[in-house]
Amino acid sequence: MFATEIFMNRFLLSSPVRTLNPEEADWFYTPVYTTCDLTPNGLPLPFKSPRMMRSSIQYISTNWPYWNRTEGADHFFVVPHDFGACFHYQEEKAIERGILPLLQRATLVQTFGQRYHVCLKEGSITVPPYAPPQKMQAHLIPPSTPRSIFVYFRGLFYDVGNDPEGGYYARGARASVWENFKDNPLFDISTEHPATYYEDMQRAIFCLCPLGWAPWSPRLVEGVIFGCIPVIIADDIVLPFADAIPWEEIGVFVAEKDVPNLDTILTSIPPEVILRKQRLLANPAMKQAMLFPQPAQPGDAFHQILNGLARKLPHDSGIYLKPNQKILNWTAGPPGDLKPW
């Protein structure tokens, strides 16, 4: 789910919007692959990402003049970490770090989106996490299959390893789901991840999409693809591609404090409203907008990102610096971030 930057790079290498003449370019893109520094379990380690990013920016600013003209205001970077360019998976520490100072003028393409948050700067483009299109396609079942599961969720409720006291992970929302509904027959919820996970989502009416360490989740993508109404439990979340996906019409938003009332909220939704949401979710264009297919297809997530970049054009003339003018502070940030990569 963190692979967006890899596939975005592959897409741009063969895209007709790419130019090899920098004087023709509206935007400059630097692939850094910060999410490829992995744990033995295959999860990204964000702790060295600031050093990787700083070294990359130093390289392009030393070898070409284009970064220095704007200090990155006409550059974009893909940062699909939990909290984007704050480069930490725990919110408290991500807030403490803030966005990497050298990226303050660049446009960030990131999965993280939460209003009023220091890790989402104005002008960022919020995108869905990567979910494997071919794998999901292989698990499709006939659309006429009855949806016999009322509420479905598979995933962690507690993160004992990183949050042993249990009150910090998911701001307690997942723990509240488990404590309130583990014995409720309407709720098919578990930490087990069965081989029929994708098929089960296609048999469910509602799929819970609670925040984890960050507000976003691959379940948002899976819910749209499999026609399972996403129940979004993440206060102030900024969802991807709001101009292409009418989230308010296809989903159900539940405040974190209202999780104990989840059964009442969902059973109170009239059948005609459920049917309307399901019909909207059946729209192929909506599904396409959430995916990063290989090869790219019209209207997919790659093209939604290009649309987002295009809407920010033309660049204001004020982004260009005067000779010898400097805005960014290259020495700002924790001392560990300043070490060369």
What does this structure look like?
This protein is an alpha/beta fold and 341 residues long. Helices cover 30% and strands 11% of the residues. The chain is globular. The two termini are 25 Å apart. The model has no long low-confidence stretch (mean pLDDT 95).
Structural class by SSE content: alpha/beta
Q: Which overall shape is indicated by the principal axes computed on the Cα atoms?
A: globular
Q: Rg, please?
A: 21 Å
The percentage of residues in β strands lies in 5-15%
Instruction: Please list the strands of the largest sheet in the order they lie side by side.
Output: 6-5-7-8-9
The number of helical elements comes to: 13
CA-CA gap between termini: 25 Å
Mean pLDDT: 95
Q: What does the largest sheet look like?
A: 5 strands, parallel
Chart the SSEs and their pairings.
Layout: H1 4-13, E1 28-29, H2 49-63, H3 66-70, E2 75-78, H4 91-97, E3 107-110, E4 125-126, H5 133-138, E5 149-154, H6 173-181, E6 187-190, H7 197-202, E7 204-210, H8 218-225, E8 229-233, H9 247-250, E9 252-253, H10 262-267, H11 271-281, H12 284-289, H13 301-310
Parallel strand pairs: 1-2, 2-3, 3-4, 5-6, 5-7, 7-8, 8-9
What's the short story on this structure?
The chain has helices at residues 4-13, 49-63, 66-70, 91-97, 133-138, 173-181, 197-202, 218-225, 247-250, 262-267, 271-281, 284-289, 301-310, and strands spanning 28-29, 75-78, 107-110, 125-126, 149-154, 187-190, 204-210, 229-233, 252-253. It has 341 residues and is an alpha/beta fold.
